[in-house]
Amino acid sequence: MSATNSIKLISSDIHRGLAELVSKRKTNYDKNKRNTLILGLPLCKVDLKRESNNEVSFSIRESVRDEDIYIVSQISSGDVNDRLLELLIMINACRTASARRITAVIPNFPYARQDRKDKSRAPITAKLVADMLTTAGVNHIITMDLHASQIQGFFDVPADNLYAEPSVLRYIKENIDYKNSILVSPDAGGAKRAASLADRLDLNFALIHKERAKPNEVSKMVLVGDVTDKISIIVDDMADTCGTLAKAADILLKNGSKMVIAIVTHGILSGNAIKNINNSNLNKVVCTNTVPFEKKLLLCPRLDTIDISGVLAESIRRLHNGESVSYLFRNSPL
Ligand SMILES: *[C@@H]1O[C@H](CO)[C@@H](O)[C@H](O)[C@H]1NC(C)=O
Ligand SMILES: *[C@@H]1O[C@H](CO)[C@@H](O)[C@H](O)[C@H]1NC(C)=O
What atom of ligand 1 comes closest to residue 224's alpha carbon? Predict the structure, then answer.
């Protein structure tokens, strides 16, 4: 990337919240002042409308020729398919407008749970989504806490999988009496995540082992580890209907835990999630803003949020300047 190319940020009009936070971030971490132009840029002017037949109509109202484009897309549970198609159309519009490089910033990668053929005649939709993004003309992907990290290999273009862990770590240190806590993984698959956080906080971790019959259906749960008189911090990559989290909270309390807090990266919170949280023993459910849930925050006083826009802004700056992003795997920018 030559110094003359500037960064342009694009977002759809719906769920602009995260893109606006990213655009306002001033990240000037670089001590060498190499290319000090940092974010703090306004979002590119775009028109995104629905035709009367519901087709998406999109145009960019300023030149993007030879620019380094970042399209920030915050995909929620209610309208995942609409947002995905809009993203593809926005990428393609930049491609045909001769952008030099197009990066899709999709912190909550859609269809990430459909990453393998787990039964006969099941599609691998995560791979299909990756192919569609590439076909639309994307050159680079930035995402966060992929449900399965091998999805990175589905792309024919480079994909950076950022971690929410440094931001979660900061939240725990600033908001929870963590010295009296224990990290809990709600399933065997998340043990690595809980163990890694426990290690960095110098705490123990516990594990809930469960046997699941069907997706979103919970069967028997067994706790491994001692949570007596501790604050249990459940960590996971996503929370959907929160049924599993609520059951985990019951078990932890039964086994002597004095408080249960859940921290998840992607707060999908679909279906009866809010009702389930209201009726559960969870004292708090903390989600990052990879998924828009501002409205749900107002509905449920037990929800809290961790802002990851700083991580995205810093990764954009590093990518633009050709610097390594691996610093962000361990550290969270202010
Ligand atoms: C948790 O509580 C259940 C039921 O009270 C008990 O059977 C189990 O042994 C306890 N587990 C631990 C690890 O304390
Ligand atoms: C959850 O609880 C809050 C207040 O505690 C209430 O305002 C809200 O309506 C409840 N939502 C549901 C879906 O039960």
Answer: 13
* Residue 298 neighbours by CB under 8 Å, 6+ apart: none
- CATH, range 165-306: 3.40.50.2020
Ligand 1 centre distance from Cα of residue 225 (Å): 9
Ligand lying nearest the CA atom of residue 254? 1
Nearest 10 degrees: CA dihedral of 269, 274, 277, 278? 170
Q: Where are the domains of the chain?
A: 3-164+309-329, 165-306
182 lines ligand 1 (CB under 6 A): no
- Ligand 2 pocket mutation pick from 274, 280, 285 by most atoms within 8 angstroms of CB: 274
Atom of ligand 2 nearest to the CA of 278: 1
Q: How far apart are CA 114 and CA 122, in angstroms?
A: 9
Identical fold between 3-164+309-329 and 165-306: yes
pLDDT at 329: 87
pLDDT tens digits, one per residue of 1-28 = 444 568 899 998 777 889 988 888 865 5
* CATH number for the domain whose boundaries are 3-164+309-329: 3.40.50.2020
